[in-house]
Amino acid sequence: MHRLTPQQLVMLALITLCWGLNWPMMKVGVTNFPPLTFRAISILLGIPVLALGLVVLKVPFTIPQRHWKELALLTLTNMLVWHVCIILAVRQLSSGRAAILGYTMPIFSALIGALLFGAKLAPRAWLGVGAAALGVVLLLWHEFTGLAGHPAGVLLVLFAASVWALGTQLLRHTRVDVPTLTISFWMVTITGIAMTLLAATFERSQWQLPPTPTVWAILYNAVLIFGYAHAAWFTLARSLPPLASTLSVMFIPVLGVFSGALWLGEVLHWQDWTAVVLMVVAIASVLWPARATRTQIS
Question: Would you kindly state where each structural domain of the chain is located, as residue ranges?
Answer without folding.
Answer: 6-287
